[in-house]
Input
Amino acid sequence: MFKDKHITDIFFDLDHTLWDFEKNSALAFIKVFETHKIHIDVPQFLKVYEPINLNYWKLYRDEQITKQQLRRGRLKDAFKLLDLEFPIQIIDALAVSYIDFLPHHNHLFPGTVELLEYLKPNYKLHIITNGFEEVQSKKLINSKIDSYFNTVTNSERVGVKKPNPKIFHYALEIARAIPEKSVMIGDNIEADIQGAKAVGMNTVFFSPINEFQHDLIIAKNLLEIKKMF
Output
């Protein structure tokens, strides 16, 4: 599929694409609540929290809220729906502990290492992520995939988030890559796919839930991507 395009560089999103965010996040919350002696049904909490978290990340991506508002608000709103209330000091302590514990759990999506091993000899590999800088580097190191990537571009360092063209231009510049010879692989249509397309990059939409988008190149699992290169 991409073999005739003379691709040189492949850019990956990290969370929800290579790094299994939902699984690792659930494990982190178990540890957070144990540490702070909060008795709560974690599956029930996650059922409420996860859609709230996605909405807060969209607001954060769109520059409508700050990092602090995201970290605090997603917990407050989830607890409120569960008829729980904690002082703001506790909310902030839970938020800090969550960020601390999150990179301790590093489950990757099936096929991550096999795909990276397959691509690394023939392409330069990179990361573009909107995640918090202090956490993302730990995720890469602790999951033992940091050595596969030539560059890592983080939104906090650039000052804007995907899908802002500036972060893609920055990533391409430090990678010394040409958009037409580059591919962006990610799970978010707006942030990863539309953002990359806007600067002229090729894209692969990683969609394990089989979301249908007839105008996109889609991979339902990571090993499907091997066949594209």
